[in-house]
Amino acid sequence: MAKVKAPVEFRNVSKRYGAVTAVDDVSFRIPAGTLVTLLGPSGCGKTTTLRLIAGLEMASAGRIFIGDEDVTALSAAERDVSMVFQSYALFPHMSVLENVAYGPSVQGLKKADAEAMAAEKIRLVGLSGLEKRAPSELSGGQQQRVAVARALVLEPKVLLFDEPLSNLDAKLRRRVRDDIRQLQTDLALTVAYVTHDQEEALAVSDEIIVMSNAKIAQIGSPHALYEEPSNLFVADFIGDANIIDATLMACDGRLGTIQLGEMLLTLPHRGAQPGTIKIAARPDALTLSKDGEGLPGTVTKSSYLGKVREYTVKTALGDLFITAPGRSDAFPPQSHVVVRFTNSGIVVLPH
Amino acid sequence: MTRNLTLSALGGLFVGTAVLAFPSMAQAQGQLTVYCSVQEEWCRPMVEAFEKDTGIKVSMTRKSSGETYAQIKAEASNPKGDVWWGGTGDPHMQAAEEGLTEEYKSPNMANLQDWAVKQWSQTKGRTIGIYSGALGFAYNTKLIASKGIPEPKCWADLLDPKLKDEVQVADPNSSGTSYTMLATLVQLMGEDKAFDYMKKLHKNINQYTKSGAAPAKATSLGETTVGIAFLHDHVTMIVEGAPMKAVAPCEGTGYEIGSMSIIKGAKNLENAKKWYDWALTPKAQAMAAAARSYQVPSNKDTPIPPQSPKMADIKLIDFDFAKYGSSAERKRLLAKWDAEVKNQPK
Amino acid sequence: MKPKTAPETALWWLGLAIASYCLLPWYWIDLSNGLNVTGWPVGASGSALARGIAGSKPWLLTLLLPLGLAALALMRRGQREHRGALLALAGALGLALLLAQGFLIGLKGWNAAWAASLFGGNPTQDGLGFGGFLTLFCFLLLLCEGLAMRGFCRGDAFIVSAIGVIVTTIIIFVFFPVTRVLSQAVWGPEGWIFGTFITKITDRSIWGLDCLTSTLNCGVAWNTVFLGIFVGVMCTLLGLAFALIATRTRFPFKRALTLFSVLPIITPPFVIGLALILIFGRSGVVSNLLYEWFSIPRSRWIYGFTGISIAQILAFTPISFMMLIGVVQGIAPSLEEASQTLRASRWTTFRTITFPLLRPGLANAFLVGFIESLADFGNPLVLGGNFEVLSTKIFFAVVGSAVDESRAAILAMVLLGFTLLAFWAQQAWIGKKVYTTVVGKGDAGLPSPLPRPIAWLCGLVTIPWVIFSLALYALILVGGFVKALGRDYTPTLQHLTTAFKINLDGGPIFTGSAWDSLFATLEVALLSAPLTAAIGLMTAYLLSRQSFAGKRSFEFGTMLSFAIPGTVIGVSYILAFNVPPFELTGTGLILVICFMFRNMPVGVRAGLATLSQIDKSLDEASLTLGAGSATTLRRVILPLLRPAILASLVYSFVRAMTSVSAVIFLVSAKYNMATTYIVGRVEAGEFGIAIAYSAMLIVFMLAVILFIQLAVGERRLGRRALSTPMPTS
């Protein structure tokens, strides 16, 4: 009974609680069969947005569509959407099998059919043999997979994840994250996924919606967000970035001439007007050398993390955070260095 | 499926409602609703005998007279009862004063005792006496012997300092019995002397109970040495074998009149009148003794039960029900009692 | 199969409304002589449509307008919200029209002078019957469906309807009668009486503080509050001790202990008081022994504050225990383990983790104990001595020798004021903290055993208490089978046979005088208990899971009829429901309704305490799995609420069996209640029969309670018991 997966669309949706606006005039589209992450710091409105899709909150304004259907006023039970909760929300009084079979059984299916469907999904998440256990008798990772199986069993048009990895340890996270992505691509599910962990978001998403203060800061693919953040917030939130004050001197077609202290750089101006601007430079876009052309500075902090070395360098433009490959030569603290700007990983922030 | 469940739950509620929605209101011909304010064993045989004699179907509800009065008052805009039978006369007279009951002159009034007729005329025909009982006190014979005090015979004997904390009576604010005592003492001694007496008696009172008959029960259990209540309440305990003796005070005492009224707006007025006439007959009144109620019946022809306190031996005062039954006088006396007696230190 | 959408169910309700409007008898008809449908569809049993057209009741035709509007809203196409708005309007209009007609046109014509002069004529009508009530109900549901279509309560029609039905019934069966009776405080037969209101409410007998400076009594208000707080605190602590023993110790007889702790709840009125007098009264068993053995002089210490508080604590501890046991069980063991791994001692863990997590349970148990004490009038009546409380004062202001309705209303207001304060204090104490401990993540921790001193303390308190209750009960049972309790201990079966004689010639015929009342009582109690528990728990669910305007006042409203002494409620029900449009006096229904709304607060409190522990995402998980709210309630919430269900079912059943004050005015010849029979016996001095009957009631109630316990079953939380060893996996 595979169903057609449906896109989700928000048209100017707002959610207000009294004087507080949790989601402010938000519009976006989650294409069918893709995994889209809602990313942002705590309180940015990402979970509320997810709950608006589920029907656990009702929009104060705007319209929500799942597929062609306007679901704005439909209750959660009437929407073809399932959700995996941060706390898993496994029913403590039911066994694993009963938990997973809950969805089909409340749809009116016979007990045997419901349990057959449940057993299939339990196998899919690799928990066969544990059907009779109570949730409290499973490890955290296993409980998480029960929650996923339970959400999948109805093959919903849209599957929602609310910070599904936050209760797992670091190693398990990576595995479960890959499992989820695998499952999503295998079954071509439409998934909305909430997280506050940018690395997790970059790893699993087809597209990321970055939210800040109840609004959308930027929508784009992981690559686009990382390489071309459209504003200060996104640049700062996704990965590490050095935000540096600069002056846009002149524009020529797509490109602009930018003065950075004593240096001049040529970068796409991205619609910024001549005058004072900010640029974002990724830590790996800056290189260090003993001498040569570039920005002179002093290493104030240096740490070795195996794969990379991290430096903090004091320069005329302020403190800069720079990474270098782990196997490169080390610059001890207090040594004088020259910082050089490479061609990629440095962008003008238009806003 | 969820909807079906909701619907069937609601359906269940409706069925339950329907089952209970059968009113016991008696409206049709041949029916009568009686509010009975004496005890169950007396109410029941009365109802059965009346049904047998007349073929009228009776719905009877038993409540105390205070409760029945409150109910009739609350129901006044759409009365559910037809006739109110029994219970102390006080609330009957209040109901009459407030016009909650109907005037009626029964053909059976000729053979009634004077006090019954007097009450009827004082209430302009709205209520009539069916029995009466004198006020008195009783003492626990074991306790009085162990204390070595002479057996009390008069109101005055109750002031004996040896009886400190040994006398029990109800609070006149809550009990008609106790209000009868208050009114009796005022009529017997004059208001000032009566309040002097009650102030002195206050030192001997261990407890002002809420219910009028409670002192009789307490005396029978030995919780108090002397209890003041209606004599027939004491007699009920004595008949059960309690070690106590009932006393009609030597100075004289008051009494209550158990009464009957027809409720204004009665839906079965004709049947209510039939009950009224029937309840005044000796045959109906003789049923009291079988129900272990030892009051004196109002029909002169009714045989008086042998256990009853002999009215001839009791010095009864000429109780002015009109004056002391009126709400104004009642409020004044009770306020005075609260201020001068109850709220005084012992 | 997807749940039907709002318009479909709305269509169903509209159909029902039209059917009841066109076909069912609109007005109340007397069914005591069987169904009489002469003249239908017109005549006394006629439908609204027929009687409206026939011309005798033309105003009924106005209801066609909302019916038509609702049909229009459901038939036409368009945006869901717009159709919802029209449907809601139709429902609201229907409700308004129906109620306006009902209240304006009475048995004897216009009820308001302005209406008479505006419309003229002298129309009359009876109280609403099947058709009227059903149509009213359908209009209400149409309004709710419309609001759900507009997206109210996340578009959940079941929730909106539940809120609508509960709020409406509380308005009709709580607010309406209570305001009716309380208005007597300021409105007398001669009009406004603010002057006397001020004098009476500031009276010294209520607020006096003489006991501080002299030997006189203080005002009743202080007595009442002091007693209420003392009883509330003691009940809560005792209940907690029992709950801790039952869940956190390995005490060998704990099952028996907890079973006996519930005994006093099933005691009919007056009986505990009487038993206490027979034990501790001046001639009581214990007093006699003390006198004979140690020459301790007999005294009347039992009368007054001491006696009332002992009797009330006995009577109200069981319900506090039942409310707390679920809360104690629900605390997540891992929280306590977390505390212990932080090197907190058992005692510190108990003090800083366990006890604070119990707050909602403790606060709700206290509130119930406090209010019960305030409203109780049986015990103060028997044991009060010269210690007066508001409830007895109110009782005698209604039925005493000096009847004063305005005084009764004023005292009831004072009582309500205290309840409001207690409610407010309880809310403040619970605060906005989070108490969720039943979450959708398996909890593999072990409940931490009680710190030793606390375990000992609990044992020391509860064991003597149980022995004391047992002694009391032994005495009560003996009392039913001896000639005269306290005086003549010759065994006899005479009391029992007087009350419960069965004539076996030609099949059993129940000839005993008490059978009628016993059957009526059982019928009413068995019907009202599940309804009471259902409405109470549903209300708790709405209060804890939904947010809507006026929620706090709604919550307080649910407690109104609980907090007011039964006498006042009884009178208020007569005042409100003796006349059209809701003419219910004389039926068994009014008893069931009275019990429902009077006893539901225990279900609400127990439900709230338990629900505060259950993680909301469990409900939400169920909703997103396509289960409607009703299914979610049934399959997820109710199984987790079992302790609260048990508490409220048992409580409402028992209270329906044993409550006396409220029903005294509502009983009728056909629906006479056991307790009024017992009180009648007590008044007549026949304690033997009263006690024999009580003993019989106790047996019946025990049987029903055991059955309820079996039927409700234990809650599965997947938690490990204290004694099971760690699984080896």
Describe the protein's architecture and organization:
The complex is a heterotrimer of chains A (about 350), B (about 350) and C (about 725). Chain A is an alpha+beta fold. Chain A folds into two domains: about 10-230, Rossmann fold (3-Layer(aba) Sandwich); about 240-350, Nucleic acid-binding proteins (OB fold (Dihydrolipoamide Acetyltransferase, E2P), Beta Barrel), CATH 2.40.50.140. Helix content of chain A is about 25%, strand content about 35%. Chain A contains eight helices and 20 strands. Chain A has helices at about 45-55, 95-105, 110-125, 140-150, 170-185, 200-205, 220-225, 230-235, and strands at about 10-15, 20-30, 35-40, 60-65, 70, 80-85, 160, 190-195, 205-210, 215-220, 240-250, 255-260, 265-270, 275-280, 285-290, 295-305, 310-315, 320-325, 335-340, 345-350. In chain A, a hairpin with a 2-residue loop joins strand 1 and strand 2 (about 20-30). In chain A, helix 2 packs across helix 3 (about 110-125), helix 2 (about 95-105) runs parallel beside helix 4 and helix 3 packs across helix 4 (about 140-150). The longest helix of chain A has 18 residues, at about 170-185. Chain B has about 350 residues and is of the alpha/beta class. Chain B folds into two domains: about 25-130 and about 255-310, D-Maltodextrin-Binding Protein, domain 2 (3-Layer(aba) Sandwich); about 135-255 and about 325-340, D-Maltodextrin-Binding Protein, domain 2 (3-Layer(aba) Sandwich). Chain B is built from 15 helices and eleven strands. Chain B has helices at about 1-20, 40-55, 65-75, 90-95, 115-120, 140-145, 175-190, 190-200, 215-220, 230-240, 270-280, 280-285, 285-290, 320-325, 325-340; strands spanning about 30-35, 55-60, 85-90, 100, 125-140, 165-170, 205-210, 225-230, 245, 255-265, 295. In chain B, strands 1, 2, 3, 4, 5, 6, 7, 8, 9, 10 and 11 form an eleven-stranded mixed sheet that branches. The termini of chain B are far apart. Chain C has about 725 residues and is mostly helical. In chain C, about 65% of the residues lie in helices and about 5% in strands. Chain C has a two-stranded antiparallel sheet with strand order 1-2. Chain C has a two-stranded antiparallel sheet with strand order 3-4. A two-stranded antiparallel sheet of chain C has the order 5-6. In chain C, a hairpin with a 2-residue loop joins strand 3 (about 185-190) and strand 4. The longest helix of chain C has about 30 residues, at about 515-545. Residues about 720-729 of chain C have low confidence and may be disordered. Chains in contact: A-C, B-C. At the A-C interface, strand 6, helix 2 and helix 4 of A face helix 4, helix 28 and helix 29 of C.
